[in-house]
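Re: export button greyed out
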Amino acid sequence: MIPLNFNKSIDGLLPAIVQDYQSNEVLMLAFINKLAWEKTLETGKAHYWSRSRNSLWLKGETSGHVQKIHQILVDCDDDTVVYKVEQIGGAACHTGHRSCFYRRLDGDRLVAEKEKVFDPAQVYGKK
Amino acid sequence: MIPLNFNKSIDGLLPAIVQDYQSNEVLMLAFINKLAWEKTLETGKAHYWSRSRNSLWLKGETSGHVQKIHQILVDCDDDTVVYKVEQIGGAACHTGHRSCFYRRLDGDRLVAEKEKVFDPAQVYGKK
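Workaround output, generated via the alternate export path:
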């Protein structure tokens, strides 16, 4: 297994950039620790470390919208990775947008550019 | 100025994903604090916070290979940004590669896929 430099950060977490494997659109960023990295390589499905829940997170475990790994890139310092994925369900963001980066800066405001792919209330249930 | 959630991380640093504004290739990832964010917005050139030097870092300050900001995207949690940039000099990585992510995972090894754009010894001087 390719070792990453998990000692680089204070909390042992490294950023994983998630890109659509076909369009190269950046869908999200999440963090990985050694366990999440190993689980991703073992299963071919993107796993992260949830900082809010402090637990391993299989992306899509609630919604079924998993991310199938097509390619993994590692940076020059072994402390950041790119996951090129097929996003099942079409949307990576919990808001229902395809990408978490659905807002662009326009002067002093943020403009939402893209339509939602799904209704979060239907996918996750009303909360 | 658009506020980001700098309290999200232990060290007050947020990840900035850097993409080529035309090809959408991910060139690098670096971290920003409030000062780097403000300087980027003020100047239109990508600034980061260097964790190794613990100081503000204008990308390209040594090599002249600055990153001109074409668009900025902000994620759903206000804790990660995408800088879509024009990379002056053609290469973002200190190794001379266009992207820091020039290696892909192939089974249990990393394969360097892309040629160098420049010779680091010529750009930064021999060390």
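The first helix of chain B runs from residue 34 to 43. The button fix ships in the next patch.
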